[in-house]
Amino acid sequence: MDLKGIKVAMLVGPGYEDLEFWVPYMRLREEEAEVTIVGIKPGETYTSKSGGLQVTAPVGAGFLNPQEFHAVLIAGGWAPDKLRRYPEVLNLVRGVYQNGGIVGSICHAGLVLISAGIVRGMRATGSLGIKDDLINAGAIWVDEPAFREGNVVWGRVVEDIPQYCRVLMETLRSLKEKI
């Protein structure tokens, strides 16, 4: 209800972390945001890291205009390491970021932000598995569950999803007030 009119692209790929995708997705839908599930190619179905859940992405990243979205969210799992290999994914993330939109990153999703070239000098968090990658890319490692740094909302791991969603919803509400 509070986010009606906010357009969010949710990136998904092979081996995505199901809770890091589905919980924010459902929170956004609950708030009536317009959510577009985005994959590498249109119509691809991806299986979660646990192998239990699948999601089909009706649209591929290369078919979207970043200027049409207020936010782009990236779940963790193994998907970010795959997603970061596609220039169209990086262009979408970088484009939303450069246009002042919100980028949501949890767990391993910071790998995509590293490849998009947007973490240098920024406080960042995520899974300990990418701590060195973030530091080597010029980010300042912070071991906190969730926080906002500029127009990026960072979340650490699955256990931190409630805090991540709280910061994400607050950030998107503040963005809506400005548009």
Describe the structure in your own words.
The chain is α/β, with parallel strands linked by helices. The protein has a single domain (7-178), classed as 3-Layer(aba) Sandwich (Rossmann fold). It is built from 6 helices and 11 strands. The chain has helices spanning 18-30, 79-83, 87-98, 110-115, 131-136, 161-178; strands at residues 7-11, 34-39, 44-47, 54-57, 59-60, 71-74, 102-106, 123-124, 140-141, 146-149, 152-155. The chain has a 7-stranded mixed β-sheet, with helices on both faces. A hairpin with a 6-residue loop joins strand 3 (44-47) and strand 4. It is globular.
Features:
single chain, alpha/beta, Rossmann fold, 7-stranded mixed β-sheet, 179 residues, 23% strand, two-stranded antiparallel ribbon
Biggest sheet overview? 7 strands, mixed
- Tell me, rounded to a whole number, the average pLDDT: 97
Q: What order do the SSEs take from the amino end to the carboxyl end, as H and E?
A: EHEEEEEHHEHEHEEEH
CATH topology type: Rossmann fold
Poorly predicted runs: none
Q: Please tell me how large the radius of gyration is.
A: 14 Å
Q: What is the CATH H-level superfamily?
A: Class I glutamine amidotransferase (GATase) domain
Structural class: alpha/beta
How much helix, percentage-wise, in residues?
25-40%
Report the strand count.
11
Which geometry do the CA atoms define? globular
Output the number of helix runs: 6
CATH class: Alpha Beta
Short characterization:
This protein has 179 residues and is an alpha/beta fold.
